[in-house]
């Protein structure tokens, strides 16, 4: 490792910063797409469901790498838009991972018990109010673990951009390897770097998850399983049942 | 379709002045006079696939009456409540609430199936309590009750909270207003659900097997609250229940259903003590 000079270390750390930026921008775009498409796929109008379903299938079924080449090389030829490599990458990753995320959103919405919507209808909430006040807040805690998976996938997926010459971790690593002619230390270092980033993301998402669960009345200490919450009705706890006598 | 003896209906009140009046001052002006027809089903048919759940049902309920629907499971009782709540649409026939159609709206002199916006407007007058409570787990008890009055009826937040506190007192849960539903027992949750439905000041309260999901020892608390409401307000109730004693206590009229039709109806004393129909006798001997 002594071959790696300070300048080369700097190259790697600059790469980490680029990777973090790519991840944040792509994740932001992906989140918008995931909620937009995911909610549209539960819409009552078939045309909305059809179009959003088509988007989902197309972006899930195409290779992110090829899509990125397409954004970078075909768009300028076909439409005269030349994207900076960084933005071609953000667009590709955001749209692709947004498609994956839309399935998470759709699934979590579908897992909210039908009785919740019925209660919303009985109280005359509009469809938009039902979604905003009842369905999404309850679906949200269930989305976080799969979102965490996708976020880490996305983080690692950003390595694709090194092919376009964006200076992320992977790109920095190949430069360092060329300079030192040693593969083992460099690639070991960036493995650890990706791992540390992924681990930080996971810890962050845990905090988000705990907050989300507390927001639907699941105390963090209680460690109730998701399955019991998603079953027919709210669970009746033994302690609550015992308190019934006092309340009357 | 006239009010013949084949159309199940609740009798109009004998005298409007009798009985303790409802503590609902701000609605007094809009309150229809006693003895008027509030709910009317005309030739309502509902099918699920090849199975006909309701078969050209005619039915009417007068304002302020408490009607209990009894009958074997699958006989269409719950379907009636769900049609009233517009959770289902009838395949044929019309349902009226007061002088407005619930299932249809009048456009250019013709009846067309109701739009979502229209039915939302009409169903503000109807409240429903569900078998599974269906409280919103993402809101604390107080907000469960105030959310719809504030965001649907446009009530001032303070007024809605004050009203919610009164209702929580009525159902005996004032101490729990700052808890999440998951922290309450089933019986407590159901009483909150009753308060939530009443907070919308509905003309009609639909009760769909409200004690069926409760542990036996919690049933009495919920039924006591409902008895209280039945005897102290003039709210019209449509109630599906397997609690025959409760039905006897609060009902003005009991309707016996079988295979999508009303086979017998009348005051509870008559239905429970001397049912005319063989099917009713069988059913009652099985459940009593």
Description:
The complex is a heterodimer of chains A (248) and B (288). By secondary structure, chain A is mainly alpha-helical. Chain A contains 10 helices and no strands. Chain B is α/β, with parallel strands linked by helices. Chain B has a domain at 65-78 and 125-287: 3-Layer(aba) Sandwich (Rossmann fold), CATH 3.40.50. Helices cover 32% and strands 25% of the residues of chain B. Chain B has 9 helices and 12 strands. Chain B has helices spanning 77-84, 116-122, 141-151, 157-170, 186-198, 216-232, 244-250, 268-273, 278-287, and strands spanning 37-48, 51-62, 66-70, 92-97, 100-101, 104-107, 110-113, 126-129, 204-208, 236-240, 253-258, 261-266. In chain B, the strands form 3 sheets. A 6-stranded mixed sheet of chain B has the order 8-9-10-3-11-12, with helices on both faces. Chain B has a 4-stranded antiparallel sheet with strand order 2-1-4-5, with helices on one face. In chain B, strands 6-7 form a two-stranded antiparallel ribbon. In chain B, helix 4 crosses helix 5 and helix 5 runs parallel beside helix 6. The longest helix of chain B is centred in the C-terminal third of the chain and has 17 residues, at 216-232.
Short description:
The complex is a heterodimer of chains A (about 250) and B (about 290). With about 250 residues, chain A is mainly α. Chain A is about 75% helix and about 0% strand.
What would CATH call the class of chain A?
Answer: Mainly Alpha
Q: What is the count of structural domains of chain A?
A: 1
Sheet/helix structural class of chain B: alpha/beta
What's the SSE pattern of chain B?
EEEHEEEEHEHHHEHEHEEHH
What is the CATH homology-level superfamily of the domain at 65-78 and 125-287 in chain B? P-loop containing nucleotide triphosphate hydrolases
Ends of chain B: how far apart?
34 Å
Major sheet: arrangement of strands of chain B: 8-9-10-3-11-12
Low-pLDDT residue intervals, each spanning 5 or more residues of chain B: 13-33
Helix content class of chain A = over 70%
**Radius of gyration of chain B over alpha carbons?**
19 Å
Subunit arrangement of the protein: heterodimer
Order of helices and strands of chain A: HHHHHHHHHH
Biggest protein-protein contact in the assembly? A-B, 35 and 47 residues
Count of DSSP strands of chain B: 12
Strand content of chain B: 15-25%
Radius of gyration of chain A: 23 Å
Which sheet architecture does the biggest sheet of chain B show? 6 strands, mixed
